[in-house]
Amino acid sequence: VLTAPAAPIEKVTGGQDFSTAYKAAFNVDVGLYSVEAFDSANAILDAIKNGATTRTAINDYLGTKTDWKGLSKEMKFDSNGELSGTVTVYAYQVQSGKIVGLKAITG
Fold first, then answer.
1. What residues contact 55, with CB distance under 8 A and at least 6 apart?
2. CA–CA separation, 48 vs 70, rounded Å?
3. Does pLDDT of 71 surpass 60?
4. Nearest in space to 69 (alpha carbons), one of 33, 32, 38
5. How far apart are CA 62 and CA 68, in angstroms?
6. DSSP for 9-20?
7. pLDDT tens digits for 11-48?
């Protein structure tokens, strides 16, 4: 059993569509943190789109957002641009060489 603060793709609204598009684009299945990486990149791109083009400006922009709705979750940022709030951790198990989500163990 392993744990991660990443939701199993089948628990994510739109997860199947994301998986299909990811596989078509990269010819590999989604990884454990693929959706979180997608969400993080899009939060940074949103900051850049709104004029934040330096590290400090991006952190300041993210710090002013009360929430940012990603595919995997709604994210809130503190004044340093770090995620804040409650983190849900999920239990996983490796079965036949694949990481399989079991259940949320916090939240």
1. none
2. 16
3. yes
4. 38
5. 9
6. GGGSTTHHHHHH
7. 889 999 999 999 999 999 999 999 999 998 998 999 99
CB 73 within 8 A of CB 57: no
Question: In terms of C-beta density within 10 A (0-12 exposed, 13-18 middle, 19 or more buried), how is residue 13 classed?
Answer: exposed
Cα–Cα distances in angstroms (integers) from residue 73 to residues 53, 61, 101, in the given order? 25, 19, 16
Kindly give, in sequence order, each residue whose CB lies less than 8 Å from that of residue 106, ignoring residues fewer than 6 positions away. Answer: 86, 87, 88, 89
The burial class, CB within 10 Å (0-12 / 13-18 / 19+), for 19 is middle
Q: Tell me how crowded residue 85 is: count the other CB atoms within 10 A of its CB.
A: 11
Instruction: Output the pLDDT for position 81.
Output: 64
Model confidence at 59, in pLDDT bands (50, 70, 90)? confident
Please give the pLDDT value at position 46.
92
